[in-house]
Amino acid sequence: AGAQGLMQIMPATGKDLQLAAPFDPDSNIDAGVRYLRFLLDKFSDTKLAVAAYNAGPNAVEKYGGVPPYPETRDYVQKVLNRIQYYD
To answer: Is the whole model's pTM more than 0.85, yes or no?
Structure first.
């Protein structure tokens, strides 16, 4: 709830990423890619980075893995399936 633009960035995350125009496609995609890179570096595991993109890094840290939220678990599975498909 409240995520903005193509990459569905939360306002607080956008602020951290200095995203001034969340609904500008170029700016939003740039910020989303930078955020995903940050999460991949932080967690060193694609599955956890994807979970953190959806549920937030604090939730991944709290649960020590993919949080038990059905939406997040479904999201992670869909993204990982697409990665395998295009790999």
So the answer is: yes
